[in-house]
Design a protein that fits this description.
The two termini are 16 Å apart. The protein is mainly alpha-helical. It contains 19 helices and no strands. It folds into 2 domains: 172 residues, no CATH class; 201 residues, no CATH class. It is globular. 72% of the residues lie in helices and 0% in strands.
Length: 465
Amino acid sequence: MLFSSIPFLYYFLPLFLICYFAVPKKFKNAVILAFSLFFYAWGEPKYVFLMIATIVVNYILGLLIEKCQGTGKDKLFVILSLVFSLGALGCFKYADFFIENFSLVTGLPVKVLNIALPIGISFYTFQILSYTIDVYRNDVRAQRSIVALGAYVTLFPQLIAGPIVRYSDVEKELRERHHGFDMAYAGIRRFITGLSKKVIIANTLGELCESFHASDEKSVVFYWVFALCYSLQIYFDFSGYSDMAIGLGKILGFNFMENFNYPFISKSITEFWRRWHISLGSWFRDYVYIPMGGNRVGKTRLFINIFTIWMLTGLWHGAEWNFVIWGLYFGVLLVLEKFIYGNLLTKAKGFNHIYVVFLVAVSFVIFSAGSFSEAMSLVGGMFGFNNVSLLSADTVYYMKSYALVMIFAVLASTPVLKNIYGYLQKGRLKKVTDIFEVPVLLALLLIVTAYLADGSFNPFLYFRF
């Protein structure tokens, strides 16, 4: 079930909110758990049992880790948690990838398993590991209520697209959270904003990207239009889902971390990754990179640490070589910035923005591909290696047709519109903006509903994650 769907918006969500606010506080986590399991089962009923098993196993292991703190057995139990959770992730997400490559290297005809990927498994695996690892580190207490832990793991607002919520960030709110009109209104506003970004901007850009793939008259310019539009599509899709998750969290009394902070205004790739998918980057930093030694090691070990993290970041996004190359691509750029030209980049005002947009656009072309060979073909087309013309009739037609949405998407990917709104909120103009805010939000919801009721293009990018 997608957030950007009629069943979710007008059936599931209203029913959930009625039940959630109708029950006493002590039953609210149970309502979240029940509805979240139903939400997950809507798409794949059989994998609910995997999720329930993950909750039960890690609930028991969390209690055992705390009970055996300092005895040595706690390390065994946290290792069991890692093996169970990462083993399930590896089996469902990476088994066929490794089998295919094993067959390719050895020449042995090993049959792939063709196991369907459970939606959101990459997200909830990292969430449950943050719980057991933090219990082992004695940063949090083990959760005594399996319902509360289950509500945390299955929390539907951010289950399928993040942000990755750490247990330590919501531990107190699982026990006691406050609800109020101001927080609920802020949540509704954030949700509708994210929904609009997803449906109106990302989906429209997605239509252009689909038209590019279907076109028989590609050109170098069309390849670059595709690269830029796909980069913006995945940004508005992903950040839109994060906005919806953060908004729903606020309605329920949770404060989830921000996941995007205008990454396209960055002046370096290093800064870009501080602003893009913040929850994933901080998770790898705190649970993998720092335990490996982080920056407090020799240069050779530092290189190994950096490239290991970025290979894992690529693999987290998908079990294909193009994702591995995508991750290592950023690893190389970060090393170059750190050791060679980072200081020069900070002084090259104007150029550094072009540098970031150019390299990020190339990266997301690699990311968009279904295979390594397709990725190389797409990148080749961007630089004229596919025997394509510089410009074509199709390119001109689609650029004219989508010009307004492309211009608006570029503006909306920067703080310009936010700053304009902030300016209007000052002084006398605040009363005007306050009057029009609710009608504008309702109008956006109506437009989104019209898009969805019309059966418009509405892809779900996160099946791959």
